[in-house]
From TrEMBL:
UniProt KW keywords: Methyltransferase, S-adenosyl-L-methionine, Transferase
Superkingdom of source: Eukaryota
Single annotated GO MF: methyltransferase activity
The protein's name: Putative tocopherol O-methyltransferase-like protein
Region (SAM motif II): 173-181
Pfam families: Methyltransf_23
Chain spans, region SAM motif I: 91-100
Disordered: annotated span: 1-20
Family: Belongs to the class I-like SAM-binding methyltransferase superfamily. gTMT family.
Length: 322
């Protein structure tokens, strides 16, 4: 089997199964999974930035000619449209990555945004990129950086602890919007997240969700072929269906503001581009250096493409209101 050539002319492996990735390790605990997730983002966030830019999430292709960067912004704008988002809102961006959405909302909508992530390295990158965008020489002592008519701050925080953290901080107050894009699928205790989001929102506040799902009614063979390698490589607890999220939200006291919208076809191109982007010997060397988790992560790129093509892996946006 031939291997693709990079722009430098070096060969990159096409089938990472040749590395003999072991079977998934036996499940130990959700805490152990969170520790692996934290480590992954500590070591990989710089590579994410190199591959995808400041927005570490899917793109939403309205036309085939949309650039990756335009498609990523269009996904943000889709959630804004479906939630009837109001400029000047106070926003909690959960799983904020390196702060791309937080900066977008502050700069373009005058929002006061608090971004939280489990990764200290992501907080460092988010602050650095925000300072560059704001043209400030250093962050204020309180950590709140002005950007356009809005502001941004970033906090290293396990999302499962966000309820107690912000409730204990009287100055933080409550939020008009909780935004979570492609992060909840990592959370072991999703009902707790919905409960905390409800506690932290003002009356009438919105919970805006974009996430990965498994299709309902998969056979055991479909699950094993498509979903299992995604859960393994992306460090996910068992994936939910879209109806699972609706049920958990309603149990936490939310009502549906915008029904789940499946946009799998419009976002699937993300992983076609991602597979092309990782055909670099340097990135493969990084994956090998991270051992089994690094190789399984790259293998999951192929599973993502296959899952979208087969309809077993889904992507949807939805909005709930307190």
């Amino acid at each position: 089997m031939s291997t693709p050539k990079t722009s430098e002319g070096a060969s990159a492996p096409q089938d990472i199964e040749k590395y003999g990735i072991p079977e998934p390790e036996p499940f130990i605990s959700f805490q152990a999974l969170k520790d692996r997730i934290r480590h992954h983002y500590e070591v990989a966030s710089d590579y994410y930035y190199t591959l995808w830019g400041e927005h570490i999430h899917h793109g939403y292709w309205i036309t085939p000619n949309d650039t990756k960067e335009k498609a990523q912004v269009q996904l943000i704008e889709l959630l804004l449209q479906r939630s009837e988002f109001k400029a000047g809102s106070k926003v909690l961006d959960v799983g904020c990555g390196i702060g791309g959405t937080s900066r977008f909302l502050a700069k373009n909508y005058g929002c006061a945004v608090t971004g939280v992530t489990i990764s200290g390295r992501q907080v460092e990158l988010a602050k650095k990129l925000t300072l560059e965008a704001s043209k400030e020489e250093q962050a204020p002592a309180n950590g709140i950086m002005k950007l356009g008519d809005g502001s941004v701050q970033f906090i290293e925080l396990d999302a499962e602890k966000m309820g107690e953290y912000f409730i204990a901080d009287e100055k933080a107050g409550k939020f008009d919007c909780v935004w979570i894009s492609e992060a909840m699928s990592h959370f072991p205790n999703k009902p707790l997240f919905f409960e905390n989001a409800a506690k932290l929102l003002n009356p009438g506040g919105k919970l805006m969700v974009a996430d990965w799902f498994k299709d309902a009614g998969l056979s055991a063979a479909e699950f094993k072929a498509d979903i299992s390698p995604i859960e393994d490589g992306m460090l996910l607890p068992p994936l939910c269906t879209q109806s699972d999220y609706v049920e958990m939200a309603e149990k936490a006291g939310f009502k549906i503001f915008a029904e789940p919208l499946d946009i799998s076809k419009e976002v699937a191109k993300t992983w076609d581009l991602s597979w092309k982007l990782i055909q670099s010997p340097a990135l493969w060397a990084f994956a090998v250096s991270q051992g089994r988790d690094g190789l399984a992560f790259f293998q999951s790129f192929r599973a993502m493409r296959r899952g979208y093509a087969n309809g077993s892996f889904r992507y949807a946006v939805m909005v709930f209101q307190k």
